[in-house]
Amino acid sequence: MTERKIIEEAVTQVLAALARLETPHTDMGIPVGISNRHIHLSADHLAILFGSGYSLTKVKDLKQVGEFAAKETVTLIGPKGVLQGVRILGPVRGFTQVELSRTDGFILGIAPPVRDSGDIAGSAGAVIAGPQGTVTLEEGVICAARHIHMSQEDARRYALADGERVTIAAAGGRGGSLANVLVRIQPDFRLECHLDTDEANALGLTNGDLVRLRPRGGE
Amino acid sequence: MTERKIIEEAVTQVLAALARLETPHTDMGIPVGISNRHIHLSADHLAILFGSGYSLTKVKDLKQVGEFAAKETVTLIGPKGVLQGVRILGPVRGFTQVELSRTDGFILGIAPPVRDSGDIAGSAGAVIAGPQGTVTLEEGVICAARHIHMSQEDARRYALADGERVTIAAAGGRGGSLANVLVRIQPDFRLECHLDTDEANALGLTNGDLVRLRPRGGE
C-alpha cells in the first residue's frame, strides 16, 4: 500500500508537470473593457436620423484602433419602454447594429439574442429616434457575445486561434467565470475582453480590471 | 513505457473513483430565483410612506414561507436618477432594507456594497417616496450577496453547513460560474438560489433554471 501511494504520488506529479508544459501563458491577465449600450449606424440611417450629409463628431477614441465614441446619441423605443441617450460609436458601418444588455432588453420589452457582432439575421428590432427622423429597425438589435480582441502576437502567447471560445475567470468577492468567450484576432487589435454591463456587474468588474483565461478543459 | 501508461491509466481511474466517492450529491440542480430590485420596510417607515395604521396588501406568495410581494410600490431617488415602482416585499421587518442590482445603483448614482441580508451598517443611502411621505435612508441600500436557501435535509444531501460559501455553475450558451454564494440553512427554507438580475442576465438564466454546485476546491 505504501508502494502504491508512492506510485500514485509520482504519477500525479508527472501528470501535473505535463499539464503545466501544455498550458500556455494563461496567467497573464487580460484587461476588461465594459460595453455600455451603444449603436453602430449605417450611412443611410445616419442621414435619416441626423440629416443628409451629417457626419459624426468624435469625442473619444476607443481602445480598438479607429473606433470612437461620437458626441451624438439616439433614443431607442421598444414595446415596453424607452432608452434615451444611447451612444453612437463611429465610424459608420455597412449596416446598423444595436448592442444592448439583457437588462436593457427588459426595459424596452424586447429579447435581443446573444450574437457575435455582425450576425444580425433574425435578431430583435426597435425604433431609433434622432433629431431629424426615425428608423424602424426590423433586425440588428443584439446582446453582443462576450469576446476578446487580440493581436496575432497575443494569440501566439496564449496559444489561441481566431474564432475559438474560451472561459475567463475573475477574482474578488464577486468572482466567477464566463464560458464561451469568443477570441477575435486581427493585427491591429489591442488586448481587451469586452463584457456588457450585466456581465461586468455580476462579477464585480470595472474597466481595466484583469481577467484570466481558464486552462482548456476547465469550465 | 507501455507498462507506465497502464499504471498511469489505472491510477487516474482510481483517483477519479475516489473523487466521486468523496463528492456529495452536487449533481442535483438547484432552482434559481431571480430577485428584481425590491424593498423591505420597517413598520415605522411603512407608516410614514403610506400613512399611520396602513398594512400591506399581499398579491403573491414568494417561494420562501411567509414572504410575499405586496401590491404597494415606492419610488427611490438618488443623486443621479430615480427608480419608480420598486416592489415592497412583506411582511414588515425590524429595519428597512433596499436590495438593488449594481445596474440599479448606476441609475441612482449610488454604489450599494455587496452584503449579506441584514448587514447594512455603513451601506448606501437613498430617498424613499411613498404616497403619504418620504424617508431619507442613511443606510440600508445593498446589493444582496448571492445566496442559497435550503432546509437541513437539503444541507445534509449537499454536505453543506450554514454560512458556507460555495460556487455554483450554470450551463448554456452564456454559461459560467459564480463564487462566494452564501449557504443559508433554516428548517422552513425551500431550496432556491437567489441571484440578482445582473447575475442572472450575465449567465442567461431565467426563474426556475437549474444551477449546480461546484465540488469543493473547484473554482
Summarize the structure.
The structure is a homodimer of 219-residue chains. Chain A has helices at 2-22, 43-50, 102-108, 152-158, 197-202, and strands at 30-35, 38-40, 58-61, 68-77, 82-90, 97-99, 114-115, 124-129, 134-144, 147-150, 165-170, 176-185, 192-196, 210-213.
Provide an overview of this structure.
Two copies of one chain form a homodimer. With 219 residues, chain A is α/β, with parallel strands linked by helices. Chain A has a domain at 37-144. Chain A contains five helices and 14 strands. The first copy, chain A, has a six-stranded mixed beta barrel. Chain A is elongated and about 80 Å long.
In the predicted model, the low-confidence regions of chain A spanning at least 5 consecutive residues are none
Query: Which range best describes the helical content of chain A: under 10%, 10-25%, 25-40%, 40-55%, 55-70% or over 70%?
Result: 10-25%
What's the main sheet of chain A like?
A: 6 strands, mixed, barrel
Percentage beta strand of chain A: 35-45%
Structural class of chain A: alpha/beta
- Could you state the oligomeric state of the chains shown? homodimer
Silhouette of chain A: elongated
Element pattern of chain A in H and E: HEEHEEEEHEEEEHEEEHE
Q: What is the number of beta strands of chain A?
A: 14
Task: Map the helices and strands.
Two copies of one chain form a homodimer.
Chain A: H1 2-22, E1 30-35, E2 38-40, H2 43-50, E3 58-61, E4 68-77, E5 82-90, E6 97-99, H3 102-108, E7 114-115, E8 124-129, E9 134-144, E10 147-150, H4 152-158, E11 165-170, E12 176-185, E13 192-196, H5 197-202, E14 210-213
Parallel strand pairs in A: 1-13, 2-5, 6-9, 7-9, 10-12
Antiparallel strand pairs in A: 1-14, 2-6, 3-4, 4-5, 4-8, 8-9, 10-13, 11-12, 11-14
